[in-house]
Amino acid sequence: MPRTDIRSFNIDFFTIITNIPDMAQQNAISPTRAENFPEWYQQVIKAADMAENSEVRGCMVIKPWGYAIWELIQQQMDAEFKRTGHTNAYFPMLIPVSYLEKEAEHAEGFATECAVVTHHRLEAVKDPETGKTRMIPAGELTDKYVIRPTSETVIGAAFSRWLESYRELPIKVNQWCNVMRWEMRPRIFLRTAEFLWQEGHTAHETREEAEEETAVMHKVYEDFQRDVLAVPSIPGEKTEHERFPGAVRTFTVEAMVQDRKAIQAGTSHFLGQNFAKAQNISFAGRNNERQYAWTTSWGVSTRMIGTLIMAHSDDDGLVCPPRVAPRQVVIIPVTPKADSREAILAHCEELAARLSAQSFHGLPIRVQVDTRDINGGMKKWEWIKKGVPVRVEIGPRDLEKGSVCVCRRDKATNEKSFIAESEFAEGIVSLLQEIQDSLLQRQLNFRDSHIRPCDNLEAFKANFAGEGDADWLLCPWDGTPEEEEELAKSLRISIRCIPHGEMGTGPEAPCILTGRPTTRRVLWARSY
Amino acid sequence: MPRTDIRSFNIDFFTIITNIPDMAQQNAISPTRAENFPEWYQQVIKAADMAENSEVRGCMVIKPWGYAIWELIQQQMDAEFKRTGHTNAYFPMLIPVSYLEKEAEHAEGFATECAVVTHHRLEAVKDPETGKTRMIPAGELTDKYVIRPTSETVIGAAFSRWLESYRELPIKVNQWCNVMRWEMRPRIFLRTAEFLWQEGHTAHETREEAEEETAVMHKVYEDFQRDVLAVPSIPGEKTEHERFPGAVRTFTVEAMVQDRKAIQAGTSHFLGQNFAKAQNISFAGRNNERQYAWTTSWGVSTRMIGTLIMAHSDDDGLVCPPRVAPRQVVIIPVTPKADSREAILAHCEELAARLSAQSFHGLPIRVQVDTRDINGGMKKWEWIKKGVPVRVEIGPRDLEKGSVCVCRRDKATNEKSFIAESEFAEGIVSLLQEIQDSLLQRQLNFRDSHIRPCDNLEAFKANFAGEGDADWLLCPWDGTPEEEEELAKSLRISIRCIPHGEMGTGPEAPCILTGRPTTRRVLWARSY
Asked: Which of these three, B261, B286, B312, is where a domain ends?
């Protein structure tokens, strides 16, 4: 079905011209999701001008449209951190290698992907052959550093300095920063050498308090994904094999995207006293005896942007949930005649002012009037590809009638409604929430139709055979970490989690691999 | 004069106890500014719990109170960037050494202080003597990287990829990030190996537009320092000798702190076509011919926090201008008797709600009721040392009378006023602005009384002799960069700027060093 805007034919000659390619092409993004999902993903990012790969190995440039989404995520998530009693702080990005050596399991987990700083200056040398000046590392450091892959060690060292008495507990800090893990197969937003994230770190007097903190932040992540990103997730616990290096327990929220792969969208770790003992995070307790603190850590990253792209977008480009859309409404003035141009532009600005005076979830509604001197078809398709939730067109006839033409990004591209302008302006908050809810509902339906119980190893293997999309399977599981790794490797899958609540347990049944009876259920899936 | 709170004697036994040490000590910070300014600075930071040195060479930990100030700076400055048409983005923190090599002057400027990444993993090796496992760098990189000391090169490379036609100009982006310069003599906030900053980078079609951008951002910095940090500064241009490596012109705002040293509080660079030519930032112009863009860059950093500490604080600790105070009002319930305790606490919370429902410069007023179970004297001194602009005490008699006891941080510690609560609540916005204005006025008076014209080399040398505080001298100047460097080195001073406007020029007079006639005036000072 051609995506041409029929109405434009009547009013804008240039629109006709530029829409002709769309008629032939059908969709703004090529290839489509069905044709080649990974390549479609790259093309959506490019078409929305969100980010790009750089010449720096594995590192991306986050362009303004992508970064604006990150700012909205930060702003709304930071409010949740503060509501739950955390304050922000900032810790050094360089970690002495000796810090890493203190917690063996942790060090091992990150050693293979660390950027190592070994020198502190460059020296100019003339290449005798080419005559060109080259800069080479000089000033070798006795103590080497890594760029933080995560900050448990450097923040633990600070906690160790700060902490004297139980009266100073809990310590609950968070930092927004960049981290670096030398990824061998980078994929923009989802897996890059450098990425942006937040990492919360807390220390508590008792095990119970630390466990409670881990659970609270796990819930914050689940709620945020659902309510702000419109991405439902399965909350659960990681198996021993998938745990964060150094953690006692790791909790995760797992999102399903449109190719049915899983994305770990946030993790919360109960670290027990492992880091406290390795780093001497200790305090004088109520009984006046020295004791170790109980610590936690939790984080989400720019990977969330990859999740939201893969969850919602379609073959015309990005679909952005209203709560994180850099622009929630774009108003396009349609000005075929010079004599009505000024009046239409002024009218559009008035409407924009009326909308942006209203708030949606505590933030002023983000509106742009697209006054650029390019044709209407180009404008329209640009905003479709950028995922703007609501597009409004106002032309001479709308002005006469007091109506506006409204298109929703969550509906078909050629679906439009003409409604009274005052009705539109008064209903904008409900409209945005309706779009937010419809995106969530669509994702919920999709997810629930692609998670199935499975207790048969043959059916299990058939589901995960080949490279194609595969459902998530909920299976009785009693395997060892070694058995888990073997099965995972053979099918390029993993246990995403032991789901919380009813989903994670069931009547005694034979483990799908070992046959040993178990009440535990785990979710197997292919993942990013 | 003892800093004891007379009123507390009547109502709070514990206050008497804890205030006795204050009576002996006179001031909360030791040493005082007069005794040892650099050490006083460190002690103010410690007493306010703003930041600390870490075990990572030259890198600080910014603690919650210090980071909250940075967040307020970011939030309010970011609004200015957006108002002036900039958007945020994010670029890789690693810069290939080959990028640096392209602009020789720039490379040379930063080569001596770069953290160099040479390896991408660590390998565990067992020390044969101790039997302990150590981690050593492995996976040497063919192409080495430096951690960004500034991002002209990596952002220039992106501009070069993005730019095709004059229609895409101007490009105006900013990033908030960390940077690293291997400082040999770090000083917390003012000069650290890693620091946080923002760096704006823009590309323009014409020289005039780029010059205009440089001027606009220079003005944004000047206004921000004055209106938000209550720090007046002298805006002007750097001499060739003090210019940013690779820039055609560098503009600066120079602040004077209480030991009369200068702090460069923000710079804006007109880069001409230097980086554009080195990195091929070019576009098809209106005449369809390929031409180079004109670029600018501009930045401020966490150093601003050091400036505000040194500008406003006193011998009792931090004095924080209301616009960047993490708490603008702290309410301390005075509850000597159990039977009135609940009523007083409830009343304090009501007042807090009434205050925080109001806005000061567009942000809700930040209020805290200090309900901690520690004595009133300790609370009071903690908030004094943290620089909170307004402290309010409410006890049983205040409750009866409907009054509050108000102390301002910009007044003497024992100065207090009793005013009707409703009057206080209704006047809070004016009170905060009054404090903000009084801090600025105090700084203006101080600065203006310590800048003097000087046209005599003997008087000049006498002013800058020794290690003590020295006035800023405005001098006729026509020296070469070499002459400037020699004079600067001999007295450990520098030309801070050629001031804008009338200050930077005057009737023809002999240069203070060379005697050559000149109309130019420059400001010489000792600086951080």
From this structure: B312
Q: What is the pLDDT of residue A12?
A: 36
Q: Which pair of structure tokens corresponds to residue B344?
A: 């007083």
Contacts of A50 (CB under 8 A, 6+ apart): A62, A63, A65, A66, A69, A305, A309, A318
Of B312, B345, B365, the residue at which a domain comes to its end is B312
Residue B481 identity (one-letter amino acid): P
Residues 6+ apart with CB under 8 A from A494: A242, A488, A524, A525, A527
- What average pLDDT does range A263-274 have in this prediction? 96
The residue among B74, B97, B121 with the most chain A CBs within 10 A of its CB, best to mutate, is B121
Domain that holds residue B400: 316-439
| The pLDDT value given to residue A25 | 53
Q: Which ranges in A228-296 belong to alpha helices (H)?
A: 274-279
Q: Are residues A432 and A473 in the same domain?
A: no
Note the pLDDT tens digit of each residue in A297-328.
999 999 999 999 999 999 999 999 999 999 99
Instruction: Summarize chain A as % helix, strand, coil (round to 5).
Output: 40, 30, 30
Which residues 6+ apart lie within 8 Å of A382 measured at CB? none
Q: Are residues B283 and B402 in the same domain?
A: no
**Chain B contact for A196 (CB, 8 A cutoff):** yes
Q: Which residue(s) pair with A497 in the sheet? A: A523
Using CA atoms, how far apart are residues A138 and A119, in angstroms rounded to an integer?
A: 6
Taking residue A14's Cβ as centre, other Cβ atoms within 10 Å add up to 14
Considering only CB atoms, which chain B residues are within 8 Å of A63?
Answer: 89
Predicted structure pTM score: 0.93
Evaluate whether residue A12 is within a structural domain: no
The chain A residue lying nearest B145, using CA atoms, is A56
A418 and A468 belong to one structural domain? no
Torsion of CA A373, A375, A381, A382, to 10 degrees: -20
Tens of pLDDT, residues A493-503 = 999 999 999 99
pLDDT per residue as tens digits for the range B44-77 = 999 999 999 998 989 999 999 999 999 999 999 9
On chain B, the residues whose CB falls within 8 A of the CB of A144 are 136-137
Task: Please write the tens of the pLDDT for every residue from B133-186.
Answer: 889 999 999 999 999 999 999 999 999 999 999 999 999 999 999 999 998 889
Q: Would you state the pLDDT for residue B25?
A: 54
State mean pLDDT over B350-359.
98
> How many independent structural domains does chain B possess?
3
CA distance B66 to B52: 10
From the list A91, A94, A122, the residue facing B146 with the nearest CB is A122
Q: Which of A18-27, A409-418, A454-463, B471-480 has the lowest mean pLDDT?
A: A18-27
B271 and B175 belong to one structural domain: yes
Q: Are residues B368 and B456 in the same domain?
A: no
Question: CA-CA distance, B371 to B424, in Å (whole number)?
Answer: 21
Instruction: Note whether B437 and B482 are within 8 A (CB).
Output: no
Indicate which of A53, A55, A174, A195 best probes the interface with B, i.e. most B CBs within 10 Å of its own CB.
A55
Assembly ipTM: 0.93
Quick: pLDDT tens for A426-438: 999 999 999 999 9
The CATH code of the domain that includes A505 is 3.30.110.30
Is residue A136's pLDDT more than 80? yes
Is the same domain home to A426 and A464?
A: no
d(CA B460, nearest CA chain A) in Å: 37
**B490 within 8 A of B522, measured Cβ to Cβ:** no
Q: Which residue of A has its CA nearest to B184?
A: A120
Note whether B67 contacts A89, CB cutoff 8 Å.
yes
Residue B355 backbone phi and psi in degrees, to 5: -70, -45
Q: Does B6 touch chain A (CB under 8 A)?
A: no
Distance from CA of B466 to the nearest CA of A (A): 33
